[in-house]
Design a protein that fits this description.
Blueprint: H1 2-15, H2 20-32, H3 34-60, H4 66-89, H5 107-119, H6 122-139, H7 143-166, H8 168-174, H9 177-204
Helix pairs in contact: 1-7, 2-3, 2-7, 2-8, 3-5, 3-6, 3-7, 4-6, 4-9, 6-9
Length: about 210
């Protein structure tokens, strides 16, 4: 259950990342209705699974090498640390008014929209590299455990995205500048902590220990 619990935890962390996909999902749900948001969330989930496949299975083949572990842990830790600092210091984005314009939903179009909106962002790939390094180096999961972790993570994100679609109108009122600032700070601190644990593994290889 440990991998599933950690997957759920990281899934919740991803859920509160307030970026372009977050606002696009809310906007889409308000304009075109609940099911439009659901299919867009499917596209986002498929995009995440695609990145997981190319990063995890590309990296797991080399993770038995101690030198590669050190390299991966260092790069992954620094990427995650960078994301943590960015989100902690991230300015509050400006959002325009959102209007209700419910129309016919093209399901395939919404899936593609979610897939490409999430997939074309290079930061998504870098983020998954940092998560995969965390799973492979710090958690030391087997392939089956890693599968449970990633399924729990993506499923958690998808379920919460569906809830976002359902409560889109209310979320529009809740997501104020103060709310976004608080969420960015929480996400930033969490990512910095996870990054420091990963970097601690690398430094231990050189006889240096940040914390036990």
């Amino acid at each position: 259950m440990h991998p599933i619990a950690n997957g759920f935890l990281f899934g919740l962390l991803l859920c509160v990342l307030i970026g372009p996909v977050f606002f696009a999902l809310i906007q889409n749900s308000i304009e075109k209705g609940f099911w439009s948001g659901v299919f867009m969330a499917m596209g986002v989930a498929l995009s995440d699974f695609f990145y997981i496949l190319i990063t995890y299975f590309g990296i797991s083949q080399l993770v038995d090498s101690e030198s590669f572990k050190m390299w991966l842990g260092g790069v992954g830790g620094l990427i995650m640390l960078g994301f943590g600092i960015i989100y902690f210091l991230k300015p509050v984005p400006k959002t325009g008014p959102m209007h209700m314009e419910v129309g016919k939903t093209n399901r395939f179009h919404q899936v593609l929209k979610g897939f490409f909106l999430n997939g074309i962002n290079p930061f998504v790939l870098f983020f998954w590299i940092s998560i995969v390094s965390k799973v492979s180096i710090d958690f030391e999961y087997s392939n089956n455990q890693a599968l449970g972790f990633f399924v729990a993570l993506v499923l958690t994100v998808f379920i919460v995205d569906v809830l976002k679609s359902h409560f889109a109108t209310k979320l529009r009122e809740i997501v104020t500048a103060r709310f976004m600032k608080i969420m960015n700070r929480i996400v930033g601190i969490a990512l910095i902590i996870f990054a420091l644990r990963l970097l601690n593994f690398v430094l231990e290889g050189f006889g240096i220990q940040l914390f036990s």
